[in-house]
Design a protein that fits this description.
about 120 residues, HIT family, subunit A, 2 helices, alpha+beta
Length: about 120
């Protein structure tokens, strides 16, 4: 039995998932249960269980997640203010975390309500 998260298995190419973005620190792919017409998960290649458990040495990886979101939004043509996108990071079960591997949800393609949830 493997202790890898589903995201680690995707990153290790054990589970097929076409990547929409990849660099040396992060990879991104479509969510299999999308909550918006565009719903992409941006995942660090290094396992960090959740954002509140990141350490000082993870600073570059944390920044890479947000920079990747901007690049992906630009590639998809949703970076413009009138279109826009939302980034979500869940920490813990009560926040909706279902995979213990830090990831950023990039949501777009419909009017997103505020407050969320």
């Amino acid at each position: 039995m493997s202790d890898k998260t589903v995201f680690q298995k995707i990153l290790d190419r054990e589970i097929p998932a076409p990547l929409v973005y990849e660099d040396e620190l992060v990879a991104a792919f479509n969510d299999i249960q999308p909550q918006a017409p565009t719903h992409i998960l941006i995942v660090p290649k290094k396992l960090i269980a959740r954002v509140g458990e990141a350490a000082a040495e993870d600073q570059a990886t944390l920044g890479a997640l947000l920079l990747a979101a901007g690049k992906i939004a630009d590639q998809l043509g949703i970076k413009a203010y009138n279109k826009g996108f939302r980034l979500v990071i869940n920490h813990g079960r009560d926040a909706g975390e279902s995979v213990p591997h830090l990831h950023v949800h990039l949501l777009a393609g419909r009017q997103l309500e505020w407050p969320p949830g």
